[in-house]
């Protein structure tokens, strides 16, 4: 039976009312204590929706909130650097390095490119003690900030995995956390994204395309509006709607790998990023906890694949031209998740670069006054 859905709040965006989807809020301290009721709640959230807020406003989660703020300061300094410095090594691998603006398909499909630049630092690289990161970070105290942030994110996501294993009555090697060990190679990554204003990017470099994540779990921090999700289910049209930023909380969602590992019991979250306020600089921090490269599971097409193979195949699909993406099965970009309801229009002409301010305005990080240099 499909879960009951409360009538969502709405906001004005692009000339129409758009839902703001509600969701469970999970208390991290209770999860850390393996509180039976909280374990049941997080399990239910992953089985029915595939996402939830994680409340970190407690002594256990406070360190992560502090790390988030330090990482935001790092991001502001890094993304202000000249393009030559940011792109010192380019994209070293799919989970390490710098991606300039316009590297992937944008939020509105054919004819658009993404509207963000991104720095990715892998957990494996940080653990080696001499990570290959651009000089604006490596030559300062920022490297320690990244180590702290990755450490905090890694602990939090492992705690969630452990609670889900307990809720699913898994034991021994079957427990999810046993395929996410720190000493085994994986593509686990901290990604820092800077979405630029439309006056810098132009009308055809917009947001981040609709997709599900490769990861097992994604731990996402953003103080600004722009993230949209499509709830799963068959109880009526489930259109794309916004996730409201919630102070002191992270947004957590299930990715393809954990959905596959659960035997398709968990829901993988369909989401994208759009310009809620096209005049602002938007920053988000995402930690992608991924299974060990040699972890084997059955994907939505019934294939036996390793986590490393799934990562490589889907990353290639992300970076393919939209014409190639259109020919690929939806099981790649959307991880086999089925959509209910109609998509909103995808044509770029339907996007208004400077709409009237939304009824619910986001808290905004102070905009930089200097000109931002980007590489198309």
From TrEMBL:
The record lists the membrane-crossing segments as none
User: What is the name of this protein?
Assistant: Fe2OG dioxygenase domain-containing protein
From which residue to which does the signal peptide run?
Answer: none
Q: Pfam families annotated for this entry?
A: 2OG-FeII_Oxy, DIOX_N
Q: Which family does it belong to?
A: Belongs to the iron/ascorbate-dependent oxidoreductase family.
UniProt entry keywords in alphabetical sequence: Iron, Metal-binding, Oxidoreductase
Molecular functions per Gene Ontology: metal ion binding; oxidoreductase activity
Annotated GO biological processes are: small molecule biosynthetic process
The record, for InterPro entries, names: DIOX_N, IPNS-like_FE2OG_OXY, IPNS-like_sf, Iron_ascorbate_oxido_reductase, Oxoglu/Fe-dep_dioxygenase_dom
Specify the Fe2OG dioxygenase domain's residue ranges: 185-291
Give the highest taxon in the source lineage: Eukaryota
